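Reviewer 2 asked us to include a model.

Predict the structure of this chain.
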Amino acid sequence: IDMKSRGITVRPIQTIDGGVEVNEVFFDDVEVPVTNLVGEENKGWDYAKFLLGNERTNIARVGMSKERVRRIKDLASRVQAGGKPLIEDARFREKLTATEIELKALELTQMRVVANESKNGRGKPDPASSILKIKGSEIQQTITELLLEVTGPFALPFAPEEDGRNELADWATTIAPTYFNTRKVSIYGGSNEIQRNIITKAVLGL
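Predicted model (structure tokens):
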């Protein structure tokens, strides 16, 4: 649909991190030419399910999570906690290591899912993508929690150059918005609760 068509109204919604990336969209007597039809008529839900399967595979975002883990290690080696770098704190290292293990398992699972799709063809969505979506979103949220733990009060959104905070404060103010924005990952693309239902039926056959 041409978004400039008569009858379409778009209203931005400000998200919890202060951004505007989602919108309310209203359709009032909108006319769409038949030439704009995508695929076969009445097959829209089939196409949507296929696209959702691809989306859920992509939501895993293994590469982004690996980069954020690298960033956590770098920052934790510079941030002091109890007179020593945070990376040397046993409890923090335990949480970080557990996250890395889960991330590696996710990466291997994603490779298997993609390999099966290539082997079996891409005519149907792979229900295993729901597993990637659940675990990928949970790992992303855990990683942003660790980033927030590293930055601590430096993540507060006020001018670092004016309050005498250290050199880490410049980048730290982006961490809290990222943390809040990532809360939604377990909802979009089909909430994690819905994904568990899909796995129960399509994977486990229950």
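Helices lie at 44-59, 62-76, 90-120, 129-151, 169-172, 175-182, 192-203. Residues 23 and 76 are 37 Å apart (CA to CA). We have added this to the supplementary material.
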